[in-house]
Amino acid sequence: MRKLLIVETKLWLREWPMVLFTITLPVGLLVVLGISIPALTEPDASGLRAVDTHMPSTMTLLALLTLACTMVPGVLTTYRELGVLRRMSTTPVHPARLLGVQLLINLATGVLSTIVLIVAANLVFGSPLPRQWGWFVVVFLLGTAALMAIGLVIAAVANRKAAPGIGSLAMFPLMFLGGMWVPREVMPDGLRVVSDYSIAGPFTQALKDTWAGQSPEVMHLVVMAAGLAIFGGLAVRLFRWE
């Protein structure tokens, strides 16, 4: 496992332009939108601004979904077409270990992206750091793992040509349900229910709660944990070496 992690990390770093794009895109959108749309920097009835909670949460979701639905399937489907996975199947490496390494690498990239995002929001707009740091870490790790598990399912079953399309079909609805374009607070009741069970919706809402100094709802944590268990199990079960 350790050797596999070292080798995959070196290969991952060779793709630094895409990794850099994943880190800078959410930060760039946060800064540009925050500067160009005055309403995002105006406090609401609770005294919080969109750049304090909503924008950092949705931009974090954007970074993680880019990794989960683009980077993860791209790497593993390329390995499959080049015969790397077929050769690896003759070794003691179990699919769960390979998928676990990919999850860890992308989790580390997501952590770096989120740190840069938090620092940028604080420096540019004076946005506060998450007020519930302990819960923030729990929500981030659990939600990130659940989102990555979705990408691992795509990587487990898709080929190199189909992976980008399938990734997009998963990514954009999840961004919508996570409140990227329509805040969850103003969604119709039916759509709000769908969002509550989409992993993306509970993830962004729980992040917003921790940023605002509140504890996340238990139901949101349960949905993310269930998503991790279901999609993680499917990824291992459906994984194909060739």
TrEMBL record:
GO terms for molecular function: ABC-type transporter activity. Residues 7-200 form the ABC-2 type transporter transmembrane domain. It is a multi-pass membrane protein. It is found in: Membrane. Keywords: Antibiotic resistance, Membrane, Transmembrane, Transmembrane helix. Signal peptide: none annotated. Its main location: membrane. Pfam families: ABC2_membrane. GO terms for biological process: response to antibiotic. The chain crosses the membrane at residues 20-40, 60-79, 99-121, 133-158, 165-182, 218-239. GO terms for cellular component: ATP-binding cassette (ABC) transporter complex. PANTHER family: DOXORUBICIN RESISTANCE ABC TRANSPORTER PERMEASE PROTEIN DRRC-RELATED, TRANSPORT PERMEASE PROTEIN. This is ABC transporter permease.
